[in-house]
Specification:
The complex is a heterodimer of chains A (about 120) and B (about 110). Chain A is mainly beta. Chain A has no helices and 11 strands. In chain A, strands 2, 4, 5, 6, 9, 10 and 11 form a 7-stranded mixed β-sheet that branches. Chain A has a 4-stranded antiparallel β-sheet with strand order 1-3-8-7, with no helix packed on it. The relative contact order of chain A is 0.32. Chain B is mainly β and about 110 residues long. The chains are: A mainly beta (about 120), B mainly beta (about 110). Chains A and B meet through β5 and β10 of A and β5, β6, β10 and β11 of B.
Chain lengths: ~120, ~110
Amino acid sequence: KAGVTQTPRYLIKTRGQQVTLSCSPISGHRSVSWYQQTPGQGLQFLFEYFSETQRNKGNFPGRFSGRQFSNSRSEMNVSTLELGDSALYLCASSLSGQGPGNTIYFGEGSWLTVV
Amino acid sequence: AQSVTQLDSQVPVFEEAPVELRCNYSSSVSVYLFWYVQYPNQGLQLLLKYLSGSTLVESINGFEAEFNKSQTSFHLRKPSVHISDTAEYFCAVSGATGRRALTFGSGTRLQVQP
């Protein structure tokens, strides 16, 4: 059974550009969440999607957005990139949400460097 | 709001020695507690979780954690560590009701030395 797959694994962008990261959840999982990991702020929740609807949102500016497709695959987009957006972006999937009865599985992440 | 404090950023320990990684949380509601492990250049793997019931929970690779409600702690322990346990360990909490996104601690780097 394939795990959570994130693409691309590594990318470098310039300030002011935008970036789109992709996540394919484990087959059968309908919930996808995104987290940002930085040395300074640690792991922070961005948002959760379930059945193509955003169900939960963290405390990030509107430059961070996401969406989920009918096949549960998800993308997140960051517009007008800033140096502080450099981070590891982790995608996580679970069967039906972030309730503790649903084990959350993480992907290996997408390393974004903004220069 | 919830918060998690991991008191040690790094814990060096010799192989086969016992280890404890400390985690304290703060929440105004009932919580569920988790420990995740992150090996270099990998994502997070769930190590163990406390939902309810017995306050002592165990993982398949010898780690255990005990939920202490009065001290709001969920410390992770292993009686004898291996080189392969070298990794970053994250304590996390989610609300038992309402918003259930994970709130993570800052992580503890466990460095097992031969």
